[in-house]
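In this section we walk through a basic example: taking a raw amino acid sequence and producing a predicted 3D structure, encoded as discrete structure tokens. The instruction is simple. Fold the sequence below.
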Amino acid sequence: MGTVNWSERYTYVNGELFHIGSNKRAGCLRPDGYLILGVDYKCVLAHRIIYEMHNETIPVGFDIDHINGNRSDNRIQNLRLATRGENLRNACIRSDNSSGVKGVFWNTSKRRWTAKLQTDNTQKHVGHFRSIELATIAINKARTEMHKEFSNTGVVNHG
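The resulting token sequence is shown next.
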């Protein structure tokens, strides 16, 4: 969008944006949980505006990650600059996950729970396990080691 002085258009208060002059809350919530604003005939995600209001312009190719996984929690302390890979590591559990554990699935041919995770374009096979509990322990340990501060078990923290 180029360089925009967001503070000339919006006031930030505890994760929310308000229009300057009217004190009217800015934006609307999309079905996927992100707050979006119409700016100069373009749609802009609120968390990107908030990040830039408190930091610098977001470099090309970078995302703004919601640390707690809650897409509507736009408090500045919940936002951080991330590469696309880092942002994906912090993703929540997929809606089509049938095991209830991020990175774990039932492998019919092995008759075991299989744990896998991905870092950037590399998939890591963690192992096959007799119980989902053992698979969960193993995947969470591997995720913490590989994903470090972007590690996420798939649970949204609303706090």
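Looking at the output, two observations stand out. The helical segments are 46-54, 84-89, 132-147. Residues 35 and 60 are 21 Å apart (CA to CA). In the next section we compare this with other chains.
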